[in-house]
Amino acid sequence: MTAVAAILAMLAAWLWTGSSSGAVRLDRLDRLKRQRTGEAARSERPLIGLSRPSRRAEAWRVASIELCQGLAAELAAGRTAGEALARAVSAVAFPDPEALRPTVAAARDGGDVPAALLAAAPERGGEGLRRLAACWRAGVTVGGGLSVLVDRVAVSLREAEAHRKDVAAQLAGARATARLLAGLPTLGLLMAAGLGMRPFDFLVGGPVGMVCLFGGLALDGCGLWWTRRLIARAERA
Asked: Core-most of 51, 92, 180, 237, by most CB within 10 Å?
């Protein structure tokens, strides 16, 4: 009986500790999943509220970083510059894949790759392609190590993109505040109308009201324009 009691005690202890450790592991996995989900949401938060041209420029910047990283890896693997660029371009999902076809053709046929990169680079978001064009021209004409130059370009682009996202996240509050302040006059008019003060009759019923209406609209529009200009200047800095 003593041996049976000892075995039962050991089995109970094993079941107790095993279920507890399993619960701990499940809890740790759940916390890790929530942490990763939160990090992904924080990384995507600066993109929320951006206009369509801004999102397109962001996609071009990300694709340019991937292109430089892939090109550096292909060059480090021992491939020629033209073959490495063609393979790197084919592995990246650009917002406009057709724009890079002349670049691939120039890389395979020995054409003017920097000119093709400059022609493919959009006005907004094409900084990476323009830097890559300058780096390609320096590596080919001067004879510098193209792999090292491309790797440095990739590092600088990643740092610039991280700084841009940080600035966008900090300016998100300013954008929201500007929109809120721009809508406060309308909210005030609706509240006054709800209280029976008839503000719209005053605004459209005489010259004084019309002057107040158009003056308020002009000031509100100027405030929005000035705020957007300040935010755009901060993003370019």
From this structure: 92
Distance CA(164)–CA(61), nearest Å, equals 11
The model's pTM is 0.58
8 A C-beta contact, residue 102 and residue 120: yes
pLDDT at 215: 92
